[in-house]
Amino acid sequence: MPLTPTDEIVRRARAAGTGVGAFNVLQLEHAQAIVAGAEAADRPVVLQISENTVRYHGALEPVALASLAVARAAKVPVAVHLDHAENADLVREAVALGLGSVMFDAARLPYAENVAATREVVEHCHRHGVWVEGELGEVGGKGGAHAPGVRTDPDEARAFVTATGVDALAVAVGSVHRMLTRDAVLDFDLIARLRAAVDTPLVLHGSSGVADADLAAAIAAGMTKVNVSTHLNKAFTQAIRTHLAEDPTAFDPRKYLAPARTAVAKEVSHLLTVLSPS
C-alpha cells in the first residue's frame, strides 16, 4: 500500500468522530510492531519519530527511511511523522526525506516567538505539501518549560491557529509525558471548549498515562490524534525481562526482541480499537 498522508488519516477520523493512534518508533522493531498491531486491528496508524530518537540514533535518515519502508509495505494506511521537533533544520530534513507531517514544538518560547517560529515552519512545510502540528500550552513531563498543571486557553488557541496556519494543535489538558501509571486526570470540559474554538484537529500528548475509558471520553469530547510512547516501551521492556528471566543464558537479541515486538503489537492493536471502535 502506498504511504498515506497524515492529514488524510486524521481528516477521515475527525469526520467520523473517532481517534487516530500515533505511536513512537525507537528502532525497527517498534515500527514493525506498530504496523503489525494496526494490521491486526485493521485500523490506520501513524508512526512517529521524535527528536530524542533522532538524537539517540545520531541522525534522522536511518530511522526515517526504515520507518518509511515499513509503512509502504503495510496492509493498512500508515503515515510517518516527525514528533516534537524543536529544531527547524530537522523539520526541513524530514520534509526532504519524504515524511508526510511534522510536529514543531516551539511551546517553550514566549507566545509571540512561538507564533513567529511556527509560522515560518508552516510556510516551508506547506510549500512541500507537508502537514504541520503545532503546540500551545505545555504538556508536562519533559523537563524545562514543560511544567505540569499548565493548560491551553481556548481563545489563545484560536488566535494561535489563525496566526500560524498549523494543520493540527497539540494542547495541554491534563496529560503528562512519560507517565508509568494510567491515572492522568483530563479536563474534558476544556477539550470540548478547545474543539469549539478551533477548526483544526486536536492532539493529545502524554496519552500513556490515560486510561482506556478516558481515552475514549477524550475522543468523544473532541480529540482526534492520540500520541502514545511510554506505554509501549513498558510492554517492550517487560517482555524482554520476562524472556531473560526464563532463559538467563540467552544471548541472541532476536530471541528476546521478537517477544518484545509481539507485546507492542498487541498493545497497539488494543489501543487502536479503543480509539476507533468498529
Give structural notes:
By secondary structure, this protein is of the alpha/beta class. The protein has eleven helices and eight strands. It has helices at 6-16, 28-41, 51-57, 61-72, 88-97, 111-127, 154-164, 188-197, 212-221, 230-246, 253-275; strands at residues 20-24, 45-50, 78-85, 101-104, 131-136, 168-171, 202-204, 223-228. The chain has an eight-stranded parallel beta barrel, surrounded by eleven helices. β6 (168-171), α8 and β7 (202-204) form a beta-alpha-beta unit. α2 packs across α11 and α5 (88-97) runs parallel beside α6. The longest helix has 23 residues, at 253-275. The two termini are 22 Å apart.
Q: What is the count of β-strands?
A: 8
Q: What's the end-to-end separation, in Å?
A: 22 Å
Shape label: globular
Average pLDDT taken over every residue:
91
Structural class: alpha/beta
Report the sheet with the most strands, covering strand number, pairing sense and barrel closure: 8 strands, parallel, barrel
Radius of gyration: 18 Å
